[in-house]
Amino acid sequence: MAMYALTEVTKRFTKGRKEVRALDGVDLTVADGDWLAIQGPTGHGKTTLLQLLGALDRPSSGSVLFDGDDLARLSERRLAGVRARSFGFVFQFFNLIPTLTAQENVETALVPLKVSAASRRERAGRALADVGLADRSGHLPAELSGGQQQRVAIARALVTEPAVLLADEPTGNLDEDTRDEIIALLEGLWKDRGLTLITVTHDSTVARRAPRIAWISKGKVSLRKDDRRAARSRAVTTEPKDADSAAVGGAVATAEQSAAPVTTTEPRDAGGTAPGGRVALPEEATAAE
Ligand SMILES: Nc1ncnc2c1ncn2[C@@H]1O[C@H](COP(=O)(O)OP(=O)(O)OP(=O)(O)O)[C@@H](O)[C@H]1O
């Protein structure tokens, strides 16, 4: 079974007397451990799709299955639970709290958990070290470069050990060199942790790094690239739950792709989670852009 299965998803918004069809009949599957880039021109539905995948919004019609639950039909309380347990979010403008240090910003993601202050400190410190910022933990966001601020935001998204990391234009506010560093960081985290990574971008340099690209145009999704073998060459992989292969916008993976070798599984939480499991993200981290 795929981690995500979207069927005939539409999302309509009303602007004055006009109706905007932001998503128009989207079919999409995402397997556990995939890295999917959602690429397309501005205003064509990328963020809307990401928000449905992150349970930040619901479709107007169709179903968004995540681990077997239809996110379109869950109560608000259960949706909040799924978001808290399963998703980490990274945004274009970092969304850090300006008055808190890097360390404190990362710790905010753990506050809703019954985690001791000592454990929060330890886990946030580890998350900052994982993104290469161990020596900047006492800095305020204004004392950090854009790339460093995005690293803090990534540490905050990952400190709760989510199954899925959803990143909306994570390099959209960065220069080219920093963009490359952040994408390399995300790629490394994806490889090492068996994360499912979903990145929204209008930048083809960024999109091409992902083994799968879903191209979105006028709310319709089609598959541009599906290099499952690249995805499976990672150091840490997951059981191919998505054995029936991907179908995006009616496109089905080729027999060759489907026949890619089966790899071994390593538990997602091998890195260790403090008691209490995953936590709700702070409001500022889950707010729609
Ligand atoms: N809350 C909303 N109310 C009304 N219209 C909306 C809303 N959110 C999105 N839209 C419209 O839906 C369409 C798709 O928007 P979306 O933000 O998903 O595009 P995008 O591809 O992410 O664009 P960008 O690259 O500029 O962020 C656009 O026409 C947008 O104006």
Descriptive report:
This protein has 289 residues and is an alpha/beta fold. The chain has one domain (4-286): Rossmann fold, CATH 3.40.50.300. Helices cover 30% and strands 24% of the residues. The strands form 3 sheets. Strands 6-7-8-3-9-10 form a 6-stranded mixed beta sheet, with helices on both faces. It has a 4-stranded antiparallel beta sheet with strand order 2-1-4-5, covered by helices on one side. Strands 11-12 form a two-stranded antiparallel sheet. A hairpin with a 2-residue loop joins strand 9 and strand 10. The longest helix has 18 residues, at 176-193. It starts with a strand and ends with a helix. The structure holds adenosine-5'-triphosphate.
Secondary-structure map with pairings?
Blueprint: E1 4-15, E2 18-30, E3 35-39, H1 46-53, E4 61-66, E5 69-70, H2 76-86, E6 87-90, H3 102-108, H4 117-130, H5 146-158, E7 164-168, H6 176-193, E8 196-201, H7 204-207, E9 212-217, E10 220-226, H8 228-232, E11 247-248, E12 251-252, H9 255-258, H10 283-286
Parallel strand pairs: 3-8, 3-9, 6-7, 7-8
Antiparallel strand pairs: 1-2, 1-4, 4-5, 9-10, 11-12
The structure holds adenosine-5'-triphosphate.
The site of adenosine-5'-triphosphate has 13 residues, from strand 1, strand 2 and helix 1.
